[in-house]
Amino acid sequence: MKAIVIDKNDGGQQVALRDFDEAGLMEGDVTVRISHSCLNYKDGLALTGKAPVVRRFPMIPGIDFAGVVETSAHSGFKPGDAVLLNGWGTGETHLGGYAERSRVKGEWLIPLPPGLTPAQAMAVGTAGYTAMLSLMAVERHGLTPDAGPAVVTGAAGGVGSVAVALLHRTGWRVIASTGRMAEAEYLMGLGANEVIDRASLAGTPKPLAKERWAAAIDSVGSATLANVLSMTRSGGAVAACGLAGGMDLPGSVAPFILRGVALLGIESVMAPRARRTEAWNRLAQELDMAKLDAMTRTIGLADVRQAAEDILAGRIRGRVVVEIGG
Length: 326
What we know:
Largest sheet: 7 strands, mixed
Number of helices: 9
Number of domains: 2
CATH architecture of the largest domain: Alpha-Beta Complex
Structural class: alpha/beta
CATH superfamily of the largest domain: Medium-chain alcohol dehydrogenases, catalytic domain
Number of strands: 15
Distance between the termini: 13 Å
Radius of gyration: 20 Å
CATH class of the largest domain: Alpha Beta
Strand content: 25-35%
Order of helices and strands: EEEHEEEEHEHEHEEHEHEHHEHE
Oligomer: single chain
Mean pLDDT: 96
């Protein structure tokens, strides 16, 4: 089968689109014929080797895929079932989605929700799924659009684009923060009410700054997250789901102890199945598919390596679907 394969030797990491023997697929009770995958920030890190995402070699990267079950020894799936997968170490410790087939544990799979095509599911991908998990966390904290506006950082990226569309659809006034102000029209088209330059969130954070929003979905981290926290209203909450700007958090406890702000950690890789299924069902029902289409472009396997460089350099807008096969 055709696959993108990452190998490593004394000269470092090598990435190639090549034939891969299906006998080398890993242990699992379901084999899926993959039709689509996608490109996430973590995929970019894996493909470029700029972070130690890949834990075994050789590795087929791709943390997401959608396709059809070919064979199954799992009671929950039968040949012909349309399924999707994100996380569970695929593309990191388990051979992933940039291939024509994958063998995985059935418990990792989710039935493709009614109303979603495989291509649409991968247009959502881990990025959009993470955005929905973030929105769900804000809602579990008890916040509603009546509490005030919500800010989305890294808004022109994959997580951010879906987050803007979801928040708008559920009634929030959305403030989109981006380093690419040329994308303001794009973000307004997704539902942003206001677009701000990320520079306003990039300076040295104050312990407390003027209150600006009740909720936030942050995929950037570092000083951006610290500034977002310092500007969050009393009783508000910030869902932290990414580290595009760095893993550090150069902030203060002041927002937590003086305003009661909550920092909500979003972990998507090993999320419980019930929460995973809820998120995907809500995405199928609540995400505006016209807006999803507007933020998505499609590439082939041969284009993935360059796209990985582009996503790390901030040159990717929205989502990238990788078309694998039929």
